[in-house]
Structures are given as C-alpha cells and as structure tokens.
Amino acid sequence: MTRWSVRAHDTGFGYVSAYGAPLVDLLDPRPGERVVDLGCGIGVLSAEITARGAHVLGIDGSAAMIEKALAQYPGIDFIVGDGSDFTVAQPYDAVFSNAALHWMGREPDAVIASVREALAPGGRFVAEMGGAGNCAALTAAMSTAWREHGLPEPDLPWYFPTPAEYAARLERGGFVVRLLEYFDRPTPMDECPDGAAGWVRMFAGSLLRTVPTGMVEPLLRRVNELAAPALRRETGWMADYVRLRFAAVRR
Ligand SMILES: C[S@@+](CC[C@H](N)C(=O)[O-])C[C@H]1O[C@@H](n2cnc3c(N)ncnc32)[C@H](O)[C@@H]1O
C-alpha cells in the first residue's frame, strides 16, 4: 500500500509538512471539532490542528509512521488504516489530508466514499495533493532513463488527477465542491543534494528494488542528466510540483 519509509520522511522531507501549514488555515479547525488527518505521516500537521483546539484522529497506512507519531505526540490518537476502507465509530466534523491522496490513487472513489462515511452531513473534506502534470519533468526523465537501460516502463505509484476529474469524483461521491485550486509550486529540493536522483530514491525507492543492483547508480546518474535542464537552477534543484487543493462539503 504505502511506500514510505519513516527515516526518509523524517530526515529528508520535513518540508512536506511545512508546505501543509496554509492548508490548516483553509481547514480552519475550531476548538472542540473532531478532525481526521488522513495519511497523517508522523503527525506534524495533526499536532498543528490539535494546537488549535480540535480533537484529531490521525490515520496512516504505514505502521512505522503511526508508531513514530504516537511516540512524538502522546496526547493525540493515531491509528493504522487504509484511506480506501477506513471506518470511524462516530462521525467527524472534517477530514483533512496533506500530500497523501495521490498515494491512494489506485481506488480514488473508494477513498472519497470512506471520507464521506466518516463525516457528519455538512462535514468538510479539505485536502491538498499532487495534480495533473505534477513532477512531469522528473517522471519523464525516469521513463527515458528506464527505457535507455532496457528496463520496463516504471510503474509509477501516484495518482495526479486534473481538477475537473477530481471535482467530478467528489460530486459523484456526495460532496459539494466549495473551492478548488490548481497551481504550480516549484519546490526547492533542499533535502536532495544529488537532485533528481535523490528524489527518486526518496519517493520512488520501491521502483529501484526491481532494478539490478549494479544498474541503480548509472540509471540514477542518467535521470539526473535528463532532468537537469528543466530542474537544475543556479541556486540548486527545483522539483516541478503541481498541486490540487480543495475544500468540499458532505451533502
Ligand atoms: C507525503 S506523506 C504526507 C504525510 C503528512 N500528511 C504530512 O503532510 O506531513 C504521505 C503519507 O500518506 C500515507 N499513505 C499512503 N498511502 C496510504 C493509504 N492508502 N492509506 C493511508 N495512508 C497512506 C503514507 O504512509 C505517508 O505517511
């Protein structure tokens, strides 16, 4: 289900949560509200929402993430669960999700259905995820490098929908879409000194497991060569992120 490693997330990509702070503002949690943080990772944003007075249940598919979250934030509830089939005992006021729904793309309608079930009527679904075109230069470099090395097309694990597609899914799934933004967010790859190669190791490490050991380094060198013209600036590497951010309300 999930391909995340706690170590990589913890040491390398703290910025994932840092970029999520405006999303907490969009959620605008009120004291006493009950909020699910879906795909909560190690719980950094769950803690931010809790600090605003809401009661948070963090759910993540990775037991290692949840273990870390529980250790770090003992006052918050965290459980292991899959976004496509989690259930809660009592309805929640809101489901929040940062940078996680694109990892749950094999069954987007099942995720939306689970979120709906978890919400009281009028409950909010506020999320940000990768949108269509997200990491296009990075993934194109991967495809070319894989092909040049005689490897099958990499089976990329992400789901990056267009705004129209995701809005239609939300509406079919019983939500009214109140806000939907689709924007470029070039993101400094500060934590990836070796650029696109480091990004692939961090975010698509599972794909490297099927690559013969001796081929990994030349393959990643080639990814860097191919991605550099689009993504390497004088100041360092920039990831070509495109985000989809929405706020929807359960009918
Ligand atoms: C980029 S991290 C984001 C973590 C956190 N929301 C943040 O902003 O720091 C994506 C998270 O989604 C989780 N995830 C991926 N697939 C999932 C699934 N099917 N169900 C629940 N969580 C999943 C991963 O384990 C990972 O912790």
UniProtKB/TrEMBL annotation:
One GO process term, biological-process aspect: methylation
Parts of the chain that traverse the membrane: none
InterPro entries referenced in this protein's UniProt entry, alphabetically: Methyltransf_25, SAM-dependent_MTases_sf
Any one GO molecular-function label of the UniProt entry: methyltransferase activity
Pfam families: Methyltransf_25 (PF13649)
Keyword Transport part of the UniProt annotation: no
Key words, A-Z: Methyltransferase, Transferase
Entry annotated with the keyword Methyltransferase: yes
Domain Methyltransferase: 35-123
CDD domains associated with the record: AdoMet_MTases
Protein name: SAM-dependent methyltransferase
Species this protein is from: Streptosporangium sandarakinum
